[in-house]
Structures are given as structure tokens and as C-alpha cells.
Design brief:
79 residues; globular
Amino acid sequence: MHKGPNNQPESGIWVCTPGRWRLSIPRDELCHFVAGRATYRSDFGEMIEVSTGTVVMFPAGWRGECTVHETMRNVYMLA
């Protein structure tokens, strides 16, 4: 939806089908999940369950695993 100089800030819509993968967040990222369901598990064991209406702030450097259970859609902003 928007990319500033050097892609900072960046905002958009992301759609993902079910699956699982490793994840590393390079910059602060705010996500508003508008459809679907997923689980994020940090390398430190923190579990974040997301579904329609969930808002999550992932700090820069967050690492872990994402498991999408139902096709999800989110609106995001990278700082």
C-alpha cells in the first residue's frame, strides 16, 4: 500500500495460506489480523495466538516460528 524512501516506513496487506516456517523480524512491525488463524512461537517460548481482530506488535529482532492454521490476511506496518 505504501513504501517510503528506502522502504521505510512500509505498509501493506499480506495474505498467507496454511503452513509453517521460521521467521525473523528485521524492523518493528505492527500487524492487525483481519482474517484467519495462526500461532507465533518465539525462540524464547512465548506463544502468540492470532485470529480475526488480533493486533500484535513484533519488536525488531523478534525470531521464532509461524504456523498458519487457516488462510490469514493482515494489514501491517514496518517502521
